[in-house]
Amino acid sequence: MKSVRREDGVPSRPEFGQSRILVRAYLAVAALLSVYAWAVFVLSFRHDGLIGPRYNAPGTDFMVYHTAARLFRQGGIPLLTQGAAFTARLNRDFAGWLTSPLPPHPWVYPPPFLLLLVPFGRLPFAIAYPGFLAATFAAAVAGAWCVAAGGVRRVAWIGVLALAPATAIDAVVGQNALLTAGILLGGFGLLRRSPLAGGAVLGAMSYKPQFAMMVPVALIALGQWRALAAAAAGAALLAVLSLALLGTAIWRDWLAWLFAGGDDYATWLEWGRSWGVGVSACAAWLGLPPPAAQALQVLAAIGAAGAVYSAFRRPLVDERRLVVLLGGTVLAAPHVLSYDLVLLAAAAALLFRHVAATPSAFAPPLLLLLWAAPLLGPPRASPAGFAVPLLAAALVAYALSANGGLAVPAVEPVASEAGGA
């Protein structure tokens, strides 16, 4: 995807239609939030930290990834589908690193993700953990590189990704949110240059399917049938490679565990979603019974799909389309945690330049709140967490509105397959 140029009417230095002093004040607050978030990360190495949510220890989620990769090498694949036994293994192996025993931490990912983790299982945890963070950050930078045009804007993206509070939280727990951002940004960023390459990259989202739901909606709206086929082929290729390299047992056991569920899965699902910031998690904390919370989540996904379809069908600049996609992805996903909000930070960065086209008093505080969203905490820890789905919905609505930026395409609309895209 190409970015909007100056001749499209977007100033290279956004002023938000307000005084430079006010703009600088917003940026100063954003910088302070970044410093605080990274201080939480640094102090988490003191085991239970001194500020913020007081995380158990750095890298608790990466412990799951690292142990899964090591179990594969040691022939212990069956343990991956035994949630209680797997968590006990984590608590035993990392007893000297943890502040207290971990709650349920089973392996819940499709086998293709394990395929990507196997190399890290050959390294000691102290090397594999920062190595994984560096690799996923590089993936996010590569994705942003495909979206941005010009060296200055690409360097700015590195700063955005490095300073985002969501990135700090992702680093604390050792999660994969930066990889998700890299795949989505890179895949859609490549579409104009090569639909097949962009689609193949998007196929890698099969490693975390709940964040891939809006991808086919966008591709169908664009009429990008070759890209859609390439995404399906990419996902299938990862599945075949995992079958060939990891064996059939892991697939058989994982599918049986996924569809049969069981007490271990139910325990993890209840615990994990209780720390979520998505629609269903917030609805549950408001007291809605599980069926009602899930129904609300389905309605949010349908609404997000409608917004994404509209954005990619209309003649909007590519950045605005991506803003809607990223916000809609957060709204639609049934399981969203604070580190996943790196997608909202990326959306805020995409929207940053465009609010200059139509001055608005609403946009700057919205962008600041999106930046701060990961620090609001889940509803379980803070009532402020209930704002996260509302912020994602406000982002989508603003990007689709007449005030959300330019309502013209950055370049000619992406042609459908019939038009030779």
Question: What this model shows, in words?
Answer:
The protein has 421 residues and is mainly alpha-helical. The protein has one domain (6-419). The chain has helices at 20-43, 60-74, 83-93, 111-117, 125-147, 151-163, 165-173, 177-190, 195-203, 214-222, 225-246, 248-260, 263-274, 279-285, 290-313, 318-332, 342-352, 363-372, 387-400. Helix 16 runs antiparallel to helix 17 (342-352). The longest helix has 24 residues, at 20-43. It is globular, with a radius of gyration of 21 Å. Residues 1-18 and 405-421 have low confidence and may be disordered.
Roughly how much helix do the residues carry, as a percent range? 55-70%
Task: Work out the count of structural domains.
Answer: 1
Main beta-sheet annotation: none
Q: Percent of residues in beta strands?
A: under 5%
- The end-to-end span amounts to 13 Å
Low-confidence segments, given as residue ranges, are: 1-18, 405-421
Structural class: mainly alpha
Tell me briefly what this model is:
The chain has 421 residues and is an all-alpha fold. The protein has helices at residues 20-43, 60-74, 83-93, 111-117, 125-147, 151-163, 165-173, 177-190, 195-203, 214-222, 225-246, 248-260, 263-274, 279-285, 290-313, 318-332, 342-352, 363-372, 387-400.
